[in-house]
Amino acid sequence: xxxxxxxxxxxxxxxxxxxxxxxxxxxxxxxxxxxxxxxxxxxxxxxxxxxxxxxxxxxxxxxxxxxxxxxxxxxxxxxxxxxxxxxxxxxxxxxxxxxxxxxxxxxxx
Amino acid sequence: xxxxxxxxxxxxxxxxxxxxxxxxxxxxxxxxxxxxxxxxxxxxxxxxxxxxxxxxxxxxxxxxxxxxxxxxxxxxxxxxxxxxxxxxxxxxxxxxxxxxxxxxxxxxxxxxxxxxxxxxxxxxxxxxxxxxxxxxxxxxxxxxxxxxxxxxxxxxxxxxxxxxxxxxxxxx
Lengths: 109, 172
Fold this sequence. Notes:
The structure holds two protein chains of two kinds.
Chain A: H1 6-17, H2 26-72, H3 74-82, H4 85-104
Chain B: H1 7-15, H2 19-41, H3 43-60, H4 70-88, H5 92-105, H6 111-122, H7 126-137, H8 142-149, H9 153-171
């Protein structure tokens, strides 16, 4: 190939680099569809997880607030002063109960 | 037979979560996008990048305002994914593989020319190669190609000119 002029080079390039003339590749389209479906499933799972965590955080905050309020009441405060382990036991029981509930109602992918 | 919806209509429907509309967009644009990315990265990696491009397009469609053509928006996503990939993978061994794979992708008239042109393309800088493919092979204007590659128009024109000069030198 000697002294290729501009026209010949342009023609060669446009023939070589043009997209192929063919019908849509079904296999590729299906692969993309599967990837999109998978991405959607993951997005929904993540959104549900965020909603659940937000709900749980709110519930924990509410329970903690209630416990603090109850602990301020004179009879409860007196009882806690006499037996400090009682408060920790109650908190542990509450935590275990929450873990049990969370384990049953967890978000699934 | 009902008239096929335009890209703009399909984009709006797909942005609202209509996967059927997105499928039609994939069907009508995969050929060009895969050809572009294959000519940049070789057929295997080109297909991987094309799939990733469509996935990213699906996620980003709600933000697509339709100021550019869907096809050029798609090419721009593909180009950015290719550039990111190149950044991650800068080994000499990989470059040689791409050069060899490009020989399968380029579809010039004769086997001799095909090999020569593949070598010439493989020797080009990625921006030069992309500019040449978009402007000479896929028929984008210089302005559109500059937008796709996110480079100034003058830089794009220089890249095309340099790429053609390099190809001419390799082919003569």
